């Protein structure tokens, strides 16, 4: 029987794209250098998220921004602009429409968990107080998804066996393949309808979070 529903954060519960875009736009405007465009900040960030995937999220953001600023010899200004980025990023970090209602409905029957690789702290993203546990990768020795140790930490936080926990996320590699490899049940939030890029099949695939309560109930049927 399912006892716990645990969630990825960014692009699953939290509209990270809007928040990050706002942060980078604020930095670009404040830097006011025609050589340092929004597109350049964004492209360097994307590259560094790949190059430094095993590092803490804040460190990746800092390295990317330092790289961009260095293109104009302004890397010494990093701390100023990094703080501005995070101030604006968190001010614009909000759940997707409908998330609160879904969490309210699920919380009547299941314990809820929040388990993320990144730095979207629940209480800074409009989700504080909604979860029985919160777990952040690279804190307290927890590795990043899709490592097995991340999902072992989810199970420990939930005080549950793998078959009792559903992990919900938008990333096939991190959230579906990773969780399934540790024995958890999986729900893939596949908003785009993309085909699965690998052989692991999610227990349930949904296109919208509003489908989640019924999806979890089907795993208990």
From TrEMBL:
Keywords: Hydrolase, Magnesium. One of its GO terms (molecular function) is hydrolase activity. Gene3D superfamilies: 1.20.120.1600, HAD superfamily/HAD-like. It comes from the Bacteria. Its cofactor is Mg(2+). Its EC number is 3.1.3.-. It is an enzyme of class 3 (hydrolase). Pfam families: Hydrolase. NCBIfam families: HAD-SF-IA-v1. This is HAD family hydrolase. It comes from Catellatospora aurea.
């Amino acid at each position: 029987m399912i006892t716990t529903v645990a969630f990825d954060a960014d692009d699953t519960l939290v509209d990270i794209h809007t928040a990050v875009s706002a942060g980078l736009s604020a930095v670009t405007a404040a830097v006011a250098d025609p050589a340092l465009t929004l597109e350049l900040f964004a492209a360097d960030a994307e590259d560094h998220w790949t190059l430094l995937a095993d590092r803490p999220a804040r460190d990746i953001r800092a390295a990317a921004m330092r790289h961009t600023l260095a293109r104009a010899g302004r890397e010494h200004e990093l701390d100023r602009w990094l703080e501005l980025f995070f101030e604006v990023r968190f001010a614009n970090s909000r759940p997707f429409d409908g998330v609160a209602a879904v969490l309210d409905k699920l919380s009547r029957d299941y314990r809820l968990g929040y388990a993320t690789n990144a730095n979207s702290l629940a209480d800074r993203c409009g989700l504080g107080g909604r979860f029985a546990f919160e777990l952040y990768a690279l804190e307290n020795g927890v590795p990043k998804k899709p490592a097995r140790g991340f999902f072992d930490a989810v199970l420990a936080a939930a005080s549950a066996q793998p078959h009792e926990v559903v992990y919900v996320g938008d990333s096939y590699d991190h959230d579906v393949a990773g969780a399934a490899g540790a024995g958890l049940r999986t729900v893939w939030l596949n908003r785009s309808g993309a085909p699965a890029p690998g052989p692991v099949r999610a227990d349930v695939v949904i296109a919208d979070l509003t489908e989640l309560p019924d999806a979890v109930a089907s795993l208990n049927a």
